[in-house]
Fold this sequence. Notes:
This protein has helices spanning 2-23, 32-62, 70-90, 98-127. The two termini are 17 Å apart. The chain is mostly helical. Helix 1 (2-23) runs antiparallel to helix 2 (32-62) and helix 3 (70-90) runs antiparallel to helix 4.
Amino acid sequence: MGLTLTAYLILGISGTWLWQRRWSKSPRPPWLRPFHYVTGTIMVILVLLLLAIGLIGTLGHYGSLGHSPHLFAGIAVVLLVLLSAGSATQISPKHPWARPLHVTTNIILLVGLIFTTATGWGVVQKYL
């Protein structure tokens, strides 16, 4: 989860930098957008990996799912990350709705990550 939160922080910084350059009509460094995309892709992979680990670990330990709100928080985060990634691929002049959807989803994702981290701590304590 720490790597996912780190990726989110890096994405927030690079996304803010992209927005600032766009808003001020300044040229952006040529590596910034690809860096943002690659970091986003890494975050998607990390979140899907965490989902798989969580599902397999919970099923292996308890034999069923739904023992804590962490499951629902985790699924919400996965859906938000996928929505964010999907909307990112659509950002263009042809799709003016994609950028606000991407940014709004990422703001909501912050709340989801906080809730998932908080509920995950309880899950980790059960395993220890």
